[in-house]
Amino acid sequence: MAATLSSGAVRFARFAYPPNELGYCGPAEDGDLMGLAAADADAEIRRRARQFEGAWHYLEVIAAAVGITDPLDDRVVEAYWIGNDLLDEMDPELLLGELRDRFRGQSGGTWAGAGSRARAHHSFHVFEVYPWVGLLPGSVVPVPLQVLDQCRIRTGEVVGVDGEHAEVRSRPLTWDGHRLATGSERIERPRWSADGQGLLTSVAVGDLVALHWDWVCDTVSEQQRDAIGRREADQVTAINAHVLSATGRTE
Fold first, then answer.
1. In this structure, is the dihedral angle defined by the CA atoms of residues 150, 151, 152 and 153, taken in order, positive or negative?
2. Across the beta sheet with 154-162, what order do the strands follow?
3. For 61, phi and psi rounded to 5 degrees?
4. CA 70 – CA 205 distance, rounded (Å)
5. Which one of 34, 161, 189, 238 is least enclosed by Cβ atoms within 10 Å?
6. Which parts of 137-214 are beta strand (E)?
7. For residues 2 and 39, is the Cβ–Cβ distance under 8 A?
8. How many other CB atoms are found less than 10 A from the CB of residue 229?
């Protein structure tokens, strides 16, 4: 009998596939997370998930902090990629202690001094652990902003489907030289399928979706959409305060 995929493992695979496809994180081996909706795929997703050193570490920290034995429990996976009340049960200093051990010897980012703003959420990893925010001031090319915009989990509404691309109304990340913000709505065309295979079986006009890099990686509820937006807004507010303080600017 084919193994039954746990929803947590599937959710992890959907969100982790886009950067793995680009070679940014996770295992470099033949095959991919998108094709693991087959017999015994749950075990294979679990094996590969442990090779995503950043994301897997957060899942372990969340699970241990709230007394859940399985890091791929769907509540834990949702907490990291989307955000839920499990994050509010965690002591930021506990997370920072784990990160100091995990990232010992690595430079870049603002996480070491994050204090109470530290959260075991993907937005914290993007904006404070990665070094891209620090490269924004004075940058003459838009690469740091492009990476931050694509690496964050963003949401939008499907307004059209064109073959293996979806047309999604979403809001980009913007930088005015001093502050990060979300801009006016625009239409972007992420992939939802490639060569007939996708992270979802289909997408339809009106779907609320989560985007990671150039992929539609999951459908979301209105509550989940709001959670993603709220977590990012809190992180952007915090990082703007850090950048403004570091550059001597005031509100």
1. positive
2. 186-188, 165-170, 154-162, 208-212, 215-219
3. -65, -45
4. 35
5. 189
6. 154-162, 165-170, 173-175, 180-182, 186-188, 193-194, 197-198, 208-212
7. yes
8. 16
Q: Which residue has the tokens 């109304």?
A: 169
Residue that has been written with the tokens 């809190």 in this structure:
234
Task: Answer yes or no: are the C-beta atoms of 114 and 122 closer than 8 Å.
Answer: no
- Least Cα distance to 77 among 103, 112, 45, 106 occurs for 45
pLDDT by 10s per residue, the chain, length 251: 334 445 899 899 999 999 988 888 877 765 577 776 433 477 888 888 888 988 999 999 999 999 999 999 999 999 999 999 999 989 999 899 988 888 776 667 888 888 888 999 999 999 999 989 988 887 666 889 999 999 999 999 999 999 999 999 999 999 988 889 999 999 999 999 988 888 888 999 999 999 999 999 999 999 999 999 999 999 999 999 876 566 554 44
| Total-model pTM | 0.90
Phi, then psi, of 94 in degrees rounded to 5: -65, -45
Query: What's the pLDDT tens digit per position in 129-165?
Result: 998 998 888 766 688 999 999 999 999 999 999 999 9
For 180-213, how does the pLDDT look when each residue is reduced to its tens digit (9 = 90+)?
999 999 999 999 998 888 888 899 999 999 999 9
Report how far residue 70's alpha carbon sits from residue 34's, in angstroms, rounded to the nearest whole number.
22
Question: Which of 156, 144, 143, 220 has its CA nearest to residue 190?
Answer: 156
Closest CA to 77 of 210, 235, 236: 210
Question: Whole-angstrom Cα distance, residue 26 to residue 49?
Answer: 7
- Assign 154 to helix, strand or coil: strand
